[in-house]
Amino acid sequence: MWQKRMLVIVAFAVILPAVSAATAFGQPSDPTIDPLDKRVKAFFESIKSKGTTAAYTELLGVGLLSTQDRKTLEDETKKIEGLYGANRGHELVYTKRVGNDLVFLKYLYKCEKFPVLWHVTFYRTGSGSESTTDSSRAWQVVSVRFDTDLELLTLLLRDK
Predict the structure, then answer these.
(1) Residue 72, domain CATH
(2) Which of 65, 114, 131, 149 could cross-link 69 (Cys pair, CB 3.0–4.6 Å)?
C-alpha cells in the first residue's frame, strides 16, 4: 500500500514540474509564438556577445525603423548596463496575439540593480490566407522599445 502512494508521489514530483515548465505563466506552447520568442532571446544574447548594432541588425533586418530611430534605440540600449547593472537573464512574461498576424511579446530583462521591461511587436507581412500556419509569410518586428514601467505588468497580467 505505501509503495503505491510512494509511486504516485514520485510521479507527481516528475510530471508536475515538466507540465508547469511547458506552460509557464499559463501560456501553453504556441507554434507561432515559440519561434518569435527564440528570435528575441537570441537578440538579448547578441547584445552581450556581439554588441547592440549587430543584435539589432539580426532582430530587425532591413525592417521598418528609420536609420535615425534605430541609431537612437541602439544608443539607449548601450546605456542600460550603466544605469541598471549587468544583465543577469531575461524572461518572457507576457504574450498577446491580436488576430492571426500581430503578436505582442513583453520580457523582463533582469539587470543587477533594476529590471527593464522590453516590448517587442511582430507583424506577419505579405498577403495570404487567414491560416495561422501560412509559413510563406514572414514575421517582421514593427516595434521594439524598453522602459522601467513595471506596474504595467500588473495591469497586463490582471487582464489575462
Answers:
(1) 3.10.450.630
(2) 65
